[in-house]
Amino acid sequence: MAEVSIENLDVQFGAVSVLKDLNLLIAEGEFIVLLGSSGCGKSTLLNAIAGLIDVTGGKVRIGGEDKTLAEPKDRGIGMVFQSYALYPQTTVEGNLSFGLRMAKMPKDEIARRIDRVSKMLQIEPYLKRRPAALSGGQRQRVAIGRALVRDADIYLFDEPLSNLDAKLRAELRVELKELHQTIGKTMIYVTHDQVEAMTLATRIAVMQNGVIQQLASPEDIYERPANLFVAGFVGSPGMNFFDGSLRSEAGKTVFVINDGPEIDVSDYAFDAPVGQSVTAVLGIRPEHLFVDAGDLPLRLPFNVKVSESMGADSVLWGTTAGQKASVRFGSELKLNPPRGTEMELGFSSRTLSLFDAESGVRL
Question: CA-CA distance, 111 to 262, in Å (whole number)?
């Protein structure tokens, strides 16, 4: 059993509190991604699970056992670091076997594990090479292999792809996804890259200032962000935000953009009842605004400032009622309107998000 339970975890470095009363339950076989910007506490949480740092309070349970004070070697984990952390003086085979040899594992078992992992990661041709003779992607495969040969219950990844170029990151991302599907082990993965998080995770924990802001599936994180921080952090280009207020009267609810139009949001699925008048923020993804409004029920005026081609997609940057906005659409539309073009965008209330302006919480 490889369930991981984090209970009321606190981590402090001197007077600085990095993790604050954090709780997280990771089921056996899950691929959890800890997502956030630098300094949010995601690597600290991973290191606390690994036993590489001391915790100030709370508990770390692995497989139902309290491992808060256990040594890293006694936690049943394999860890892959951002910097590869390979021994430069020995071969790939030597790097893969090092931990097993230190544990005095029989030679035939070591050979069996290395053979299995090297085939799985396609590093058989490199077993006799030293790390200096490998590319960055090959070194990272070796680093992953060194964790896998341990046949651990849990695998921890600390931004393992951040040193690689974009093409190689995309290739190894697919391989990591396939690896998880193949071995079915619990994996906890730290990244600041939202594409990695969205493509790899069973669930994503979005972190800010040592606190988990939302823990949900990638789809829920993207479509129903719990607050303004999550909504703005996930997505490229980021979600459009419009300041305004909500008004309810005669069975109808409208959002009034400051110095702008009214939008009927009566069909919006509110998480909680709202008062007759509430200062709020309306959010909508750039791809949910359509330059061809068609029969979509809602409309927004849009003034074009800049047009960007991104290959398969294009983005228009501009303003709505003086507030910044962006629109994303397929490049097959062949649109490249000049600066100052006035447009009308169409959208649906089903794709909106509404947030309380003061607390930032989803309404």
Answer: 69
